[in-house]
Design a protein that fits this description.
Layout lengths: L1 E9 L2 E9 L6 H11 L11 E6 L12 E7 L10 E6 L2 E10 L4 H14 L2 E3 L5 E5 L10 E11 L1
Antiparallel strand pairs: 1-6, 2-4, 2-5, 3-4, 3-8, 6-9, 7-9, 8-9
């Protein structure tokens, strides 16, 4: 696993998404639904479009069946939504950002690494603000090496 760590303020941005409820490991089902909706509209083919997975609940304290996540696309233009796809936004804030190149089975290790490095750098996770992952505009599960950016909201201790 290869990674880079950074801390910076990110601006507010909008995304469109399909809501997923249940294990975070099965969010790919929601991505399939989202991409089935987005491809005929030409949204998945734009080079500036990025995929985003937004995690609303802490899996350490929320029952797996009740975990909420969004499988989304960050779009740069107004998009008419429907069929279970809705507009959402991530608000401006300070985030720890980890850029990872890893095998799919190293995903939990990447998240554990992020929380360890956040602590080592003198920051702490802000509860109640979603964490998210950004992916290049291709399926994150199609290659042996998975590239993802993990964003975790933080504050100085």
């Amino acid at each position: 696993m290869i990674y880079e760590f950074d801390v910076r303020v990110i601006p507010t941005f909008e995304y469109i998404a399909c809501r997923h409820k249940g294990s975070y490991d099965t969010i790919c089902e929601a991505f399939e639904e989202l991409l089935t909706w987005a491809k005929p509209k030409g949204l998945a083919a734009k080079s500036e479009t990025r995929m985003i997975a937004v995690y609303h609940d802490d899996p350490r304290i929320t029952d797996e069946a009740d975990l909420r996540s969004d499988a989304g696309l960050i779009v740069t233009e107004k998009v008419k939504v429907g069929d279970g796809i809705k507009h959402h936004e991530i608000l401006e804030g300070l985030y720890a950002i980890g850029r990872f190149e890893m095998k799919i089975e190293e995903c939990q290790l990447a998240w554990d690494t992020m929380f360890r490095v956040i602590e080592e750098q003198g920051y702490e996770f802000i509860e109640g603000i979603p964490c998210f992952e950004l992916y290049p505009m291709c399926s994150p599960h199609t290659e042996d090496t998975w590239k993802t950016d993990i964003y975790i909201p933080i504050k100085v201790k």
